[in-house]
Amino acid sequence: MIRITPYGAAGEVTGSAYMLESDAATVLVDFGMFQGDKDDDARNVVPGGVHRATVNAVLLTHGHLDHSGRLPVLIRDGYRGPIYCTHGTRDIAEIILNDAAHIQEYDYERKHRRAQRTGRRLGRYDAPLFDQQDVDQTLSQIVIVEYGVMVPVATGVHAVFHDAGHLLGSASVEVRIQDADRERIVVFSGDVGPQHLPYLRDPAPPVKADVIVLESTYGDRDHRTLEETLNEFQQIIVDAVEQKGKIFIPSFAIGRAQQMMFHIAEMVRSKRIPAIPIFLDSPMAIKADAVYRKHTELFDTESSQLVEGGQLWHDLRSVRVCVTADESKAINDEQGPFIVIAGSGMCTAGRIMHHIRNSISDPTSHFVIVGYQARGSLGRKLVDGAPGVKLMGEYHNVRAKIHTLGGFSAHAGQTELLDWFGTVAQSGVSTLLLTHGEDRARNPLRDKIQERFGVSAFLPAYSEHCEV
């Protein structure tokens, strides 16, 4: 018997977590955090169906918070088994989990001070989900694996990590399970990247599977071409320069921030835009840059050549890093034109919140949305055209120009997902589960797969058992 149970990312795009059970072992694939609104925060727990004593191993596809963020919660709950991932993922997860612990501890201290002033007692749900000690313990349990190498992870279970092309170190995981008298192969796609993402090699999926758990974030559409997206991005910058305006890019600090700087460097190199100041206003993104420089062995050929020759850093000589809060606040006194890259990517926390508060009502300011915006997030409200937004207790009219550039996504579009599926399923697949996508994306992808490959896909709900 093999059973797969999603404990997140089932009809949504955050909280990735899958429990894979065989007769001999139980393995978790990812254990990510739910992100969006307060209702999502309440789900960041260890579900009742996941028991620390029976989980034999965790396989981590990549370091993004929506895939790794509940691992310290699992550790706090008492899990002491191995967590398998690539070296790049380990280093990315260290930055992301440390930052999450810091934010939670800071928020708790702020709540505590407010409670003291008002005489209110804090409840147990006000406490951080995890702290720095939990993160340190999580990192100590990580076991590094190499791409393409089969490793035993539990009784009767082996795993092979394949480059997913989504983030430095990201992987699709091929799980080989001894089931009675035969071996069955279950492939978890993780987040699949598009072709030709800066820095990263293209996805290299497995070539065989009995069961596939496939992400469907953009299962309903293809992205705009990169050329069209870059042309629009260039025009936004040119317009802002003429207006002496400000450009704010809410960005995931790891992956997207580096991608945006890569494209800006390209445009400067080709003299399509002037070398205006670029404020990298994200301590996490600054740390991520160091990880990218550490793992150049994971780069594609073009990026390797630009880095080795020093050209990339020359093109980005106008970048100013803002490590401290004071350096971030000083941006308010700067005159445009300039570009600010700041987290968080969905505008749910971080320094971008302050930039929105200060500039969202300025008609000469531009906010460039370059990543997926989950339901309930402030970024989603901006994309959907909200006339005003409330943040930090204040209402602000939206007068700045809001641009949505979907072509920068680090997720494969529909056609690329179909191609990825076709590569893995070419030897025949008995079961397909579509996850990590809202139903408006899962349903069209299911129909396309049925039409092209004759395979019926199952769309599981949270905690729904799928026996295969």
How would you sum up this structure, described in words?
It is a single chain. Strand 3, helix 1 (38-41) and strand 4 (57-59) form a beta-alpha-beta unit. 34% of the residues lie in helices and 22% in strands. With 468 residues, it is an alpha/beta fold. The protein has a 7-stranded mixed β-sheet with strand order 6-5-4-3-2-1-22. The termini are close together. It has 2 domains: 3-221 and 410-467, 4-Layer Sandwich (Metallo-beta-lactamase, Chain A); 226-408, Rossmann fold (3-Layer(aba) Sandwich). Helix 4 packs antiparallel against helix 8 and helix 14 crosses helix 15. The radius of gyration is 22 Å and the shape is globular. The protein has 15 helices and 22 strands.
